[in-house]
Input
Amino acid sequence: MTVLDDEALRIEHLSKVYKDFWGRDKVRALDDLNLTIHRGEVFGLLGPNGSGKSTTIKLLLGLIFPTAGSATILGQPAGSTAINEKIGFLPEESYLYRFLNGEETLKFYGRLFKIPRKELNRRVPELLDIVGLDQKARKRKLREYSKGMARRIGLAQALINNPELILLDEPTTGLDPIGTREMKDLILSLKAQGKTVLLCSHLLYDVQDVCDRITILFKGKMQTLGHVRDLLQVRDITQFQVQGLSETQIQEMRQFLAKMGIDNPTVTHPTTSLEDLFMRVVNENSPGGNGRIQAGA
Amino acid sequence: MMTLPASMLAAWNPVYVVWLVSAAIVVGGLLVFGLDDVRRTSITRVWAISSVCFAESVRRKVLWVIPLAILGVIAVSLLQHSLDPQEALRQTIKFCLFASCLIITLTALILAATNLPREIENRVIFTIVTKPTTRLEIILGKIIGFARVSGLIMVIMGVFTFAYLAIENRILTNQIAERLKSETDEPTRRTLQAYQEAGLLSTKSLGNAVDYQIFEHAPSGKAGDPQWLTGAFGYSFIVEFNLTDQDKALIEAAASDPARQQVLAISTMKLKRTSPNAEEQKWIASRKLPVESTGLGPALPGTDLTPIPIPQLTVRVLDENLAVIVPDTLINGGKLVTAKPGIDLNSTDPYIIPCVLPPEALRKIIQSGRFFVQVVPETNAVQYEITPTPVVLDIIDGNGGEHVIKAAGGPRFISMANRYGMKIVGNSKGEGSVAVFRFENVAVPSNLDAPVVFKFRGGVERSGDFDATKPWSELALTVINRDTGERSDPVAFHPETNHDLPVQVPGKYVKGGNFDAQVRGMDDGQLIGMSKTGVQLISGAHSFAFNLLSSLIILWLMSVLVVVIAIFCSTFLSWPIAIVLTLMILFAHWGVGQLGDTLTPGVGRNVASDLGMQDPTQLTLFSSSVDALAKILTTVAAFLPDLAKFPVMEDITRGVAIPPGQIFESMGVLICYGLPLVVISYIILKNKEVAP
Output
């Protein structure tokens, strides 16, 4: 495998300047972005609102055109129709035809990929199962969907073509904690299947849980780039986690550390995340105890 | 600045230019921008997009307009009160087709113009363009989708129209049978019987005249025989001129040097001048016509010294639609063209009556290249002889040399028109004016041993001289076969105003399809107005259902054009503006046609004078600006689609079979304008950032 074969996405000096009616520069939304994402990687694009995350995604998909620079996806120019065969895209809100039902929606998008009818009839229910839309929900018009259900059908349409690269713009927006967890599990399962995921979010915990590498954009510029664990590591603090220590043993540990010249070490009990707590409570109280609640039920 | 030669401009027929531009846009646009996308175009994707558009329209309850339209048609047709059963049925056809036309085109317009802007605004387009869908497929899919919606509405309205008309036909046919039992008025009886025999929904194919002229006196038929026209009786003639490049150059030279050179329209004609009778004298006095005395001093006993009028003419310059090209005010200084006074009344020499054409008029005729000169005899008590070459253009150069431009053909005789068309005057001795319809190579019925049927339609007016005791007006139709020279006996018939009347003539007179049909009025005080389709030969009968289908297909083709234009506009405009622009594109050609004479050259001067402008600089500036605006308007309109090429109601509501060629002509317009607009829409959308 060559270096290029390993690259799912390469962005070089990509810039986008929005202009006003008279052609004068109005906003520099993205400024000289350089980035490479490898195949099989889950990559997080972080930043506050207006930092250039969505602009980057739109540029990669050909929804808007770059002022300067270029991008290639799986070795082909970004925005070309041909490369869209291998891409799945979940927009930040589910921009779908609200007069179609769930099944019709997926069949429509499947036909845009020229997926044979037989294959489509197999894949549509499978995808609806994966995203957790039940039988009733599949027959309802999208206008009747809750926000969470709309995200799920949006995700299903992004996966209809079994894409190699999936671009997810704020994938957990509108999802409840269970949906959020399922989404994160799904992203990890996609990674396990060898797919590349570009995740764009400002919900930092979500990104932290699933991403291999991240970059943070601010005012259109890349501020930092690297592996999540490297970036989050506090190098001058060492933490031990031990289960079942008594108060006496803790005192002995303190004395031992004092002898080593370490005064006033912080000794606390770790807390779980709110998400973990929520999941545990729901799991314990659900029939069967698997914590999975079907959307639309 | 480089300019194209006038001859080249004149040769540019807008139709050819439109086809040329259309082909250039399609080929050039796709070669430069979209060869790759054309190769990638997939029917599956196009059909999928079209199906979504179709489903959207259906699920958004767009089809609810159909029952509303049907209810409207039923209500309006029940409220109409036409005594004539065929007229009643045709009115219903008109209502049905009008309603269909309205809902199909309006639905197509609103759906197509709003769809793309809405999808961009609510960002549904994000999930379409990020799939392997080309922008060309998106445009094509949407057009096909909305064409399917129009098609569905058309089918439903078509089935309703057919069923509703079948019911109404049955009811009216029964009413005719009832009325015939008691009807005593002979013309009405005949009309009802004709309806009963032919059926109210009968559809005929008709042979049309290629030429239609009104002669004051029946033409002798011999080539070269002159026609005599009486002054101020509303008769006139036109002659056609086609200028060559040499003619234009000479006229241009004369227009550039008006002090030394002159161009005259010279009418050469013998004149019979008689002493006006009392009534004519009254007319002459009221019109303040110039007169001259025929003798000097006191009159000898028995000598008539009534001043007799000096012959005058009106000369006009018209285009092929007989619209004025040169304003009357520019011709001969805005005055009537007058023969030289003092010519011996007994002279048999032709009079030469010159009319001066000033430089402004000359430039307009150079620009036109092909034009018609109309000469109207204006003077009472004068007979004007019109020879085969009555008018020439004479260019007199600075050295006294002359260049004569002859007309392209002989004179065509016309008369004053009323709302039904040009008028003939009836005469109980059969000496009134004659309408001659010239048929060339028309299709004739296969069985010529049986009588053939002509359809007459016109308007009959009666003056005080009409014999009020006569229950009907009588006309006579004579058919002369130009191939065999055979002439039928006059067939008398009694028409009702604006009603079709069948007139039977032995078949042998139309054999070969080259014949003249002459119509005369046979009553004094009778004025009959007829258009070019006043007399038509019924050459065959057709199914009404097939005719309705043809009409609906033309309507559907028009709706597809509406969809294409609306989608084109919506690629770069918000939907309300897209709707307005679509309507402007659709109606500009028709609208400018309606303005007609208002936009002829010289309109600026007329408007300026109406506004009372006195200052010459202001006047010139204003009038030239208005002229330029009018020119731009007419030029732009000439290159926009002509809705008259989609005659949905015209033929079917007259019971005439829509020729298959008409569908192809409508299709031609759709292709000619539709394909380039599809390509332009695709190019715009391809280069458009769809993320707002």
Notes: The beta strands of chain A are 7-19, 25-38, 42-46, 68-73, 76-77, 87-90, 165-169, 196-201, 213-218, 221-227.
